[in-house]
């Protein structure tokens, strides 16, 4: 079957570029069909635009490499959950995980108890967080893959359930102890060894959590049969079944992965807040909506089967730096409000673009 | 065997007629009624105050806006769509209406018209983007949810809206909000549910919605104007959000804070889904939605009255969604197997 062997990468051109086509038309096609190109262009535009504003002196702080690097702290949970959504949405059949924020809250509280109050070692508590996240994700996976729940409904139900559990087991109070407060050091910015002197300080979480996750997810999707199977069943579930792919366990696995990543994000969040807040992943807009936004902006087709790790990383950078830029341009309350607007406009823009490219070029 | 003028035997006609019209009340709705009755009896036994008018009335007042928006959401989900922006839309309608009440002391009809008009506009925006932009509804409405919230926060400024006059007391919890002891907001909701039930079941417009949700491509080929129908479903939801926003203002105090509407989209979707409407489209009923909303509110208010942590209510809501959808899935599987 071709479903297992076809190259699902959106970068694969449908036809060799015809001779005689103008540079402009080819550039336009690259911009529209290769989300990575568009994102890089947008990031460059943003950086150039903000540098000009900075030079004009209208910003409330200076827009430089240090500022951009410190803004990366919020990229860690966003990109990790974006990768979780990438895998879940890729698996097709309306795959989506609304419960990631609740899983972050719940595993964060459990981690807080184990590490902060029961005196577990960091490694043991980390393993526990991963396990709890994995179990939460497995419940989603069983509901979706084996019982046949629409993912939207299954994860809506568990969103309620996990959020409620997090608040009930913690008695609606943040879990706090000196150990957890010291854990804040895990969220600090560090200087890179060897070449670090000439570079800005970079948040530690980038190296301890984000980059390993990116590498593992990339390897899973691109270098394993599991990844190939995932693209196959996201592209065409029936074809995947008939080509001998064991659909159910594969689909369940992505929900478990989403739970495991949520568990890791919970640990990152506990470090950032220096306490285990039971509403860490659900307060305000929660973490589910931004992570889905990241995925859609990164070129993941909501119908499944199309999406790349590079898209997620770049769209996270774009969102994080847009947010940081807004804060510099409009300080205080205005800034946070305009971040909402930016997120909404970017999401609608990205999805309209996805639809347009699909119709015009037959792919993202 | 009698044969009519078209040469079709009478039992066959009757059988076709029966197939075309779904039963007026589905099995899932009867089960829901049963569950609600059992819950009310149990809660009545354990907390004697539960079955008093003083406890049921506020319950009905809080059911009203959820069920009202649920009617529109049922229409949308029947067409295989979804609208997660209603929380933001409630916030925007409520703050604009409340501000106008404070600043211009609008009369009741004007205030209602303003809120419904604004809601309709927001619904139209969603509808146009979804029906004509041909983009997945959940993504678009996630986006508009952010934009509505942004606009609402701009209107709020950085504080609450204070000193709202009692214009909306006719929808409130007080004496002015009741006729024969039944809250007006709940009565209005019942009437709208009844009209929507009739529309979905007995008019071609209503049946078209089911056809679109069942198979949009087939519906288009059958001559149904798919895009205008989808647009209308989102516009209707917007208008109902506008009316519900009036209920939210009325149910509160003279102060409106920025938490209004927050998380309501999920409560509405939960009510619709518990009511037996299929998220995949093509199947659903507004009576189920009303019952779902009552069930969710019963659990919420029951948990509080039992003295349990109020956050526990959401756990039950999650479990109810899984049970309601799960039994439906298993029934379908059994039907397919037989």
UniProtKB/TrEMBL annotation, chain A:
Keywords: Cell membrane, Membrane, Transmembrane, Transmembrane helix. Coiled coil: none annotated. It is found in: Cell membrane. GO terms for cellular component: plasma membrane. It is a multi-pass membrane protein. Pfam families: BPD_transp_2 (PF02653). GO terms for molecular function: transmembrane transporter activity. The keyword Phosphoprotein does not apply. This is ABC transporter permease.
From TrEMBL, chain B:
It is a multi-pass membrane protein. InterPro entries: ABC_transp_permease (IPR001851). Keywords: Cell inner membrane, Cell membrane, Membrane, Transmembrane, Transmembrane helix, Transport. The keyword Secreted does not apply. It holds the Pfam family BPD_transp_2. The keyword Nucleotide-binding does not apply. It is found in: Cell membrane. CDD domains: TM_PBP1_transp_AraH_like. The chain crosses the membrane at residues 30-51, 58-82, 106-125, 137-156, 176-200, 230-251, 263-280, 287-306, 312-330. GO terms for cellular component: plasma membrane. One of its GO terms (molecular function) is transmembrane transporter activity. Its main location: membrane. The complex is composed of two ATP-binding proteins (LsrA), two transmembrane proteins (LsrC and LsrD) and a solute-binding protein (LsrB). Part of the ABC transporter complex LsrABCD involved in autoinducer 2 (AI-2) import. Probably responsible for the translocation of the substrate across the membrane. This is Autoinducer 2 import system permease protein LsrC.
